[in-house]
Each structure stands twice: as C-alpha cells, then as structure tokens.
Amino acid sequence: MPAELTIFDPWHNRAGVRKDPRLVVDKDEIATKKFFPDHVVPHLCHPLVVARPPEERRYLAAQHLYQWLRFTERFEVEVVLRTVQGIADGVSGVELTKKMRRDAMKICVDEQFHALYSIDVADQIEELSGIPAVPFDFGPHLRHIDGVAEANPTYAKLVKLLQVIVFETLITSLLQDVPRDDDLIGVVRETVRDHAADEVYHHAYFAHVFKELWAQLDQPDKRAVGTFLPDVIVRSLKPATLSARLALAEVGFTPDQVRAIVAESYAPDPVMAGIRFAARRTIGMFRKCGVFEVAGSREAFVAAGFTDPGVGRVAALDTVDDIRAAIQGNAG
Ligand SMILES: [Fe+2]
Ligand SMILES: [Fe+2]
Q1: I want to staple 136 with a disulfide (CB 3.0 to 4.6 A). Which of 70, 107, 224, 249 is the partner?
Q2: How far is the CA of 199 from the centre of ligand 1 (A)?
Q3: Which contacts (CB < 8 Å, 24+ apart) does range 308-317 have?
C-alpha cells in the first residue's frame, strides 16, 4: 500500500516556525505609521471618537492592536491547542489516520509559535511606543464560547472540536486588509501575513477533519450538531469589547459615553454581517458535507441571523491555492 501523502509532508521546510526569523518592530515606524487600520476598529469610527485629538485616537488604536494580539495568543493556547493536542492524541472524538494525528502535532507547534510571536510583538510595541496596555482578560470570552458546551454537556467534546474547525476555516476581512495596508507599522502587516501563511494549511486540514467527522456521526448526533453549530460560529466571532471599554474610559469618556459608543459601534446587525462574511467558506464547507440536508439545521442557521445556508452560493475551499487566494482577497 502506498504511503499516505498529506499537505503537511513539506512542513519541515515551509512552516513559519521552521523558517521565519523573529518578528522585530522597526522603532522608527512607531511614531510615523499606524497601529491598526481605522476601518477595522469599530469604535474608532464612532463620531464621538472621530472628534477626539489624533493622539487619543492613536492611543485607542494601539490598545486595539494589543488586545487583538493578546486575544490571538490566548485563543491559540486556551482554545485551539487544547483540542488539536486531543486530535494528535486520538481523544478528540473524531477517528483519523495516524498520519493525520501526526499532522495535528505539527499544527500544535505552529499554533504555539503564533502565540509566541503575537505576545512578543505586543510586548515590543508596548515598550517602544511607551503606551501601556490596559488590562486584558480572556476569561469572559472563553466562558462565552464554551457556553455552547455547557448548554449541551453530552456534546461538550464535540462542541470543542467544532469550535476549532470553525475558527480554523474562517476568512476574516482583517486577514485580507492588514497585510496590504502600507500605512501600518510593518511588523503588524508581517504578523498577519505570516500567521495567514500557516493558516492556509490549517484551513485545508480542518476541512478534511470536518468531512471525516460528519461521516462518522450518527443521525441523532448530526441533528444535534445542526442546531448548535450556528451558536458555535456566532460566539467564536463575537467581538470582545472589554479592552475597548477600558481604553475609552482611560481617554476620558464617561461611563455613559463608553456604554453608548460600544453599543452603537458593535450593534447587532453590523456585527452579524461581519460574522456572515467571515464564515461564508465555513458554511460552504458545511453545505458541501450535507449539514443543511439534516432536519432543523437550516432553520437554526436562519434563526441565528445567517442567510438561508441551504441556498447559499459561496463554495467551500479545498485546495491550498484556492484558500491562499481567498485569504489574500483574490477570490470571490
Ligand atoms: Fe494560528
Ligand atoms: Fe491554525
């Protein structure tokens, strides 16, 4: 029997952790370039914040960058790694070949590296800019995303596997916008670009894992998954606003103003539109595997705010080249 080939065979030569140098902040750029694109920071676009002086807006953009990098670090460690190590150990709830489980170990190494450089870049920028980060607490967000497992204790392990499948197959606008934005500090663009370069392979891997998982579930389990899957997506993508609240208070907004800015900047409709955009390929993958042929799943997605996924047209992505094109914003 020929040896099983996977996209992780060339990992030792192409993974960021094996070939990329440390991401280092160019201190000359700190004063002249932007921390984050304004249009992806909802509260920076609020009229009360737009009216503030440039140095306060700059402070808020720096805080958004810190929170995004710290969120990435914590998410990799507390959500992705706990499950991917389980896949590697064969205890995640999906049966995979030994080769696929070894590939999961390579993904664990990738994710630990992503966590390391995310926090390393945050630390460097904090030190060079002299802008101290407001406190960050991942706990509330973790409890929020794990709420689906808590509400469905029989399926707790499955929910945690689906959290990772969903998160690893999302394509957010940030992945497309940040690397090509010349106004940004170079290391911020490089952080997103390098992370996305590895995630292309993770996306392809988890599309395969979902296909295997779905084929292994019995009909009652498929029905259960169809009903809680939209909640897994929405909770994974709902913006965490705690750091924004602290940062807005720090620049002098009153508690009432902070509440109003956050409520208006993160209103349910635009938040849901962002979630639909980021999840469109993931939903295409579910459609291709037959998730929406199971009774109740289309209705559950529509009730959660998705356009009827049974008739959606955005396709799943299978090949690494197609996924890369989509992440770079060169695909439909
Ligand atoms: Fe990652
Ligand atoms: Fe990943």
Answers
A1: 70
A2: 6
A3: 309/283, 312/280, 312/283, 312/284, 312/287, 314/280, 314/281, 314/283, 314/284, 315/281, 315/284, 315/288, 316/207, 316/281, 316/284, 316/285, 316/287, 316/288, 317/203, 317/204, 317/207, 317/281, 317/284, 317/285
Kind and range of the H or E run holding 160? helix 156-169
191-244 pLDDT tens trace? 999 999 999 999 999 999 999 999 999 999 999 999 999 999 999 999 989 999
Check residue 312 and give its pLDDT: 66
CA distance 207 to 185: 33
Question: Residue 321 — pLDDT band, cuts 50, 70, 90?
Answer: confident
- Residue 29 in tokens: 């750029």
Backbone angles phi, psi at 296, to 5 degrees: 95, -20
In the chain, the domains with their CATH numbers are: 36-327 (1.10.620.20)
The average pLDDT across 278-291 equals 93
Looking at all shown ligands, the one closest to residue 209's CA atom is 2
Q: Which ligand is nearest to the CA of 72?
A: 1
Closest of 122, 229, 99, 116 to residue 165, by C-alpha: 229
Distances (CA, A) of 312 to 42, 190, 239, 288: 27, 33, 25, 11
C-alpha dihedral, 312 to 317 to 321 to 322, nearest 10°: 0
How far is ligand 2, taken at its centre, from the CA of residue 32, in Å? 32
pLDDT digits (tens, 9 = 90+) for 171-205: 888 888 899 999 999 999 999 999 999 999 999 99
Element (H, E) at 125: helix 98-129
Which ligand ends up closest to the CA of 204?
Answer: 2
Question: Among 159, 133, 174, 207, which residue's Cα sits nearest to residue 38?
Answer: 174
